[in-house]
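Please check this:
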Amino acid sequence: MNIAVIGTGYVGLVSGACFAEMGVNVTCVDVDEKKIENLLQGIVPIYEPGLDEMVLRNHEEGRLHFTTDITRYLNDVEIVFSAVGTPPDEDGSADLKYVLEVARTIGRNMNKYLVLVTKSTVPVGTAQKVKKAIQEELDKRGVSIPFDVASNPEFLKEGAAIKDFMSPDRVVIGVESDRAKELMTKLYRPFLLNNFRVIFTDIPSAEMIKYAANAMLATRISFMNDIANLCELVGADVNMVRKGIGSDTRIGSKFLYPGCGYGGSCFPKDVKALIRTAEKNGYEMRVLKAVEEVNDNQKSLIFNKLNKYYDGNLKGKTIAVWGLAFKPETDDMREATSLVTIDLLLKSGCKVKVFDPVAMDECKRRIGDKVEYGIDIYDTVLNADALLLLTEWKQFRLPSWGVIQKSMNNALLIDGRNIYDHEELHQLGFDYYCIGK
């Protein structure tokens, strides 16, 4: 089976590589010539465990191809996936200019039936705009070529994307014709053979499922952060509360971990977009507005704890930061708490020294030499007046605390992810603060 994937960002490249791994002949397309040149040489533009090897293997075995010109391949493919970016517009709504440009390109160049499948996260109603854009181009050409549109939202977690794709909780496919359903069923037959759940819906429902899923997860996080902040005020322990409510099978334990705010490419953008979609339809998403507000405030929490500890006198202090990416196993710093924290520290006159296992280059790209970059976790804390833990990388979990204490000017640790044992650290002489205790 021959397919094309337009867009070699996170979603497009992972999807293309995984489809190729399943035996599909995949052509990945991008307008960025340098990115395509690198991919042809085996250089993968994003960090994702296992992706480099998968891309290289499938390219060498002739199932995964890279090009800047989709028009050369349209006569050979049955399905085209659109995985281009949908950045937030100024008002928070999703910008569909790249999605619609893909549709127009297809309409200008297709010569036979195909299915254009939206893989990007797009607002409800986008498929109809895509369909209209294709038909307008066909009308300009004066040709009548049948086609279908479909929605196949991705549910990939950064750091575990390959596992999520190859062993999914569910595959959601929105279609509006039997012909499109048959073709998508053929593509996803390996999942059906493995008894994974493939859910066919109408297209608007598929588009909504993606937003609703991310909004629900974001809501759970902000809810627990709100509970954690209240626990601190009333003397409760949020970890005990989390275990207590998570044992209720109606609630479950996932996404009930308090922290210093969610970030990344999905949750913040999708919550905003869903709020804007509701506003455009005359409805107010009151819960999601609160979710967004709680998360925005939570990203300042670690700085506020530090500022309170030093009675507002942070000028000249050296602050060590462990963790820059918005979560472990990725170099993605989009909407990361670290960016908010570092900005507040610099504005307060602090000297900031940072370390992250994989996001150092991304940090340099974003903020340059405004901060100092540590060689490792121990170099980063040398002569520091405080250590802030912002991302729960595994290598941060069991450091040599004795070495760290002797290296710091003041053994102050503020744990933004609640990964340490406060009793152990108090016994070792640290002033230790976390969230929700």
Q: What stands out?
A: The first helix runs from residue 10 to 21. The mean pLDDT is 94. The chain is about 45% helix and 15% strand.
